[in-house]
Prior knowledge:
about 15% strand, binds zinc ion
Amino acid sequence: xxxxxxxxxxxxxxxxxxxxxxxxxxxxxxxYCLLLTAYGQVPSPKSVLGFNPTDDKTIADWRQxxxxxxxxxxxxxxxxxxxxxxxxxxxxxxxxxxxSKDNIKKLDKYRQISAKLADPRTIKDDAELADxxxxxxxxxxxxxxxxxxxxxxxxxxxxxxxxxxxxNDVDTKEILDNTILLLIPSSNPxxxxxxxxxxxxTLGTKSEGTSPPELYHHYAGHDDNRDxxxxxxxxxxxxxxxxxxxxxxxxxxxxxxxxxNASRFIIPPxxxxxxxxxxxxxxxxxxxxxxxxAADLQAKNIAGVATNSTYDTxxxxxxxxxxxxxxxIGILSEAASANLMSPVTVKKEDLARxxxxxxxxxxLEPATNYPDTWNGGLWRPADINEIEMTASRALLSxxxxxxxxxxxxxxxxxxxxxxxxxxxxxxxIVTAGQPNAGTVSRFxxxxxxQGIEVYQMTHELHVKMDxxxxxxxxxxxxxxxxxxxxxxxxxxxxLFEKQEYPHRLLANGDAxxxxxxxxxxxPLQMGVDYAPAWQISDLDKQRSTxxxxxxxxxxxxxxxxxxxxxxxxxxxxxLKTNSRIGLYKGFTGSMDEGWxxxxxxxxxxxxxSVSDKDMRSGNLDLDVIxxxxxxxxxxxxxxxxxxxxxxxxxxxGEAGVENLKKYVAGGGKLICFDDSCAMVIKQFxxxxxxxxxxxxxxxx
Length: 700
Ligand SMILES: [Zn+2]
């Protein structure tokens, strides 16, 4: 596939001519070039980086990407770049606002229009609504490479920004006039650093194109895209604030990559099951964007594009699924990967063997949701770039052409949520007097972080906690109230209700495995007591006695907790002992290790990491060792020395297993999570049987 055609910058064009002209003119031309550079010529990525992003074996790290965007901001009146927070490792997290020159000058005006449309209660009448729809812009977000080994989108973001900043064709102008793009070059910049460093270090070695030997998010690794309902991570917190407290994008597009032996690209409509809390109209809009992308890709004869496959709309907490509960249209795309930035050759036989894709029985046979098969061959980062650029342009083009429709619909979704519906409670109550006040306060902080309205009482309310209950019970002061009929109704219901994953069986009788998490009821996950309020006595009259909780310290004051130093501040250490705690950390990147470290850090519990080398040499002078969830193979054998340098390969080895046995025999405590139990049960010869291995899904 052809690479992005980036027009040569004017200075480069002049250099071609300059050989044929006299020396005197050359000086004038050079001076002119310098002037252009100083006064607003839009720099191409190549002029800044020295290469075209997504060319084979090139990679821009986070410093280079932010440097390019800073230069674009300086040179183009269509681009303004803002830092929206710091990442977990302290890197700048940035968003590039891209729109027409006139729109960029009035960004805050358009932000306010979007915020008003998000809350219909702030709009006084039809005339005001008509005015907002007429004058607003479609707010679109495109976010790249949250999964950092899915690296191409982060590089593509510079090509997309340059094309929008420099293009003067009719389509680009239509996009710029009608939309404001919030382009997030990466929602996990720390991972871009980790991957770029590893890729460069291993280029030309046996390890070229492998995943780095560590988690690509300090705590969460790949799970950094499972945090959008719980906001544990600095990145999720910052982007959630940008989206659901400030800009309220109508369209959110998160750009991912899948495996190599797969379809070339998966876009919506998605696969089943569907979550009943997503309005059907939003699902239709998601599908419409997907089909526009598919049609534009087909017009370019790009083969291997699948819809209605693999990814479902059940789960709540992904980057593109959380927006459904905020009345927005969330889009995910998954391009087939190369080996990081190195091209790969995909064999037809390997594609033929892939028979496990939901919605795609056979990658080599055309189907309604996969009409043009891709039969193997060379696959390069530039191919991924072209697909993702085409999809991004398709999305932006829809956002521009149907601007009033998207804005009006966005308002309508919020408006519908304000009305009571049969079978829904009036509110959820977080009851007063719970022992774990710190956790309750974090829970409320998470809700408010997502833009959910939380209220405190100034007078006692009387409530029926059960729809069948006949009399009202007094609810004590100090309880918190989350009313269901607010613009974010579906978010409230989805976070408080218990999910029941539909009973789905495959043709052979096996239970179908959900793509992602099947249940996420937030108060249950956090151990917070709550109850639905099916009826509040005289709610309309009592409404004026409710006080909106504006920030977390107001909530903490109600619970007599100390003020927090920062948002989502660390919690006090709950342990009363000074045990020396060790947490095993191998090179295979265990997400469970990362999350365990996150818990220890959040609650300020001192610990040290225990390496493969510590295990092998018996450096285990500890009271407690935690083995996070990982397979026996991963812990004992670790990374393969055929692909990884010696220092990262080999796991804890047999020596490590023997040293662990000695440690336990000597009175040390060993705590195993999930999968790591299997390793210990087997290697320690424990008289314990694990029930699940060998159990068929039909019997489960
Ligand atoms: Zn991904």
